[in-house]
TrEMBL record:
GO biological-process terms attached to the record: glycerol metabolic process; lipid metabolic process
Protein name from the UniProt record: glycerophosphodiester phosphodiesterase
Coiled coil start-end: none
Catalytic reaction annotation: a sn-glycero-3-phosphodiester + H2O = an alcohol + sn-glycerol 3-phosphate + H(+)
Taxonomy of the source species: Eukaryota, Viridiplantae, Streptophyta, Embryophyta, Tracheophyta
SUPFAM superfamilies: PLC-like phosphodiesterases
InterPro entries the UniProt entry points to: GDPD4, GP_PDE_dom, PLC-like_Pdiesterase_TIM-brl
Signal peptide start and end residues: none
């Protein structure tokens, strides 16, 4: 109101204003002029604003779902493709390589006489039908005699447990990355384990090998002996205390392997800020797989790489279709 009153008082001072006002008077009353003005302002501001926010929200939803396309995580096959063959056998590795995984995680254990095998205690216990036997209880000869075809039928034909050296020689040039998950166990525990692993890596010229271990002292030992090597430590929840171990605890490590239910936006941000890559393990179901994509982790370790690849492919198609509908 005040503005209009002020204009009316001011106008007589500049002659032109009064004449113009008289000209419009027959067509519009003062109040209808105001109404039109408000309507114009409303139409000029609100619909564009409404659509702006609506579109922004829509874009946010799509971005949340599809941002990972710009930096897809490495698909890391846990012991090869263990849905199709016995874990950590040449067959499991071949299946994974055939489905073009980016990365293979190899479990590394040492025999009683000091030979490194691609073998997990859990899998040995299945082969040996002995729930307490550990890799370190057996000699190289005993492990080489084990035959996985006793428990897995219909494999490609290689029934033996590979040594770490044989495994690396056959897989490292077929994937972007090989993660060696070093297991510490009797009879030698950590003694000389870092050297043993590094010497196999050197012999096989595995340039894309990284080493991680649940044992911090082993990981630190690898960092000390091979400063150029990418090393990881593990973040998980302690079975006994229920407490998560510290997120930032090893300066020289470039990778952090995190038990996937612990991963959220904040954790990813904290590790990124320290230039550490986040590898999620072991993600075998669709919902956590999608969650890992949305959180933008660097790699996903899975026992079912083909399923994860299929899920990524489906999401990629959806995102591209929705992307097209936004642009038109
Ligand atoms: C299982 O393995 C342990 C360690 O090698 C051995 O002492 C034990 O006798 C085995 N048990 C059976 C039932 O073979």
């Amino acid at each position: 109101m005040a503005i209009f009153d002020w204009r009316q008082r001011k106008r007589p001072l500049d002659g032109g204003g009064t004449r113009r006002r008289r000209l419009f008077r027959p067509f519009y009353s003062r109040s209808s002029k105001k109404l039109i003005l408000f309507a114009v302002i409303f139409l000029a501001i609100f619909p564009p604003l409404f659509f702006h926010f609506k579109l922004r929200r829509f874009r946010q939803i799509i971005a949340q779902k599809c941002d990972w396309l710009h930096h897809p995580p490495l698909v890391c096959a846990h012991g090869g493709d263990s849905t199709l063959a016995f874990p950590n056998t040449m067959d499991a590795y071949s299946y994974a390589i055939r489905s073009r995984v980016d990365c293979i995680e190899v479990d590394v254990s040492r025999s009683s006489d000091g030979v490194l095998f691609a073998l997990h205690n859990r899998d040995l216990q299945r082969i040996a039908s002995n729930s307490t036997v550990q890799v370190g209880d057996l000699s190289m000869k005993q492990i080489k005699e084990l035959d996985v075809s006793q428990i897995v039928k219909g494999t490609l034909g290689n029934r033996r447990i590979p040594t770490l050296e044989d495994a690396l020689a056959s897989i490292s040039s077929s994937v972007q990355r090989v993660v060696l998950d070093a297991k510490v166990g009797p009879p030698m525990y950590e003694k000389g384990l870092a050297q043993d692993i590094l010497s196999v890596i050197k012999r096989t010229q595995c340039k894309n090998c990284i080493v991680w271990a649940k044992s911090d002292s082993l990981a630190r030992d690898v960092i000390k002996r091979a400063p150029d090597m990418t090393v990881g430590y593990i973040v998980m929840v302690d079975h006994l205390t229920g407490v998560r171990n510290s997120l930032l605890r090893m300066k020289g490590a470039g990778v952090v392997g995190v038990y996937h239910p612990l991963i959220d936006e904040k954790l990813v941000k904290v590790l990124r800020r320290r230039n550490k890559e986040v590898y999620a393990w072991t993600v075998d179901d669709a919902d956590p797989m999608k969650k890992m994509l949305h959180l933008g982790v660097d790699a996903v370790v899975t026992s079912n790489p083909a399923m994860f690849q299929g899920l990524m492919e489906d999401l990629r198609t959806e995102c591209l279709e929705e992307g097209v509908s936004i642009r038109t």
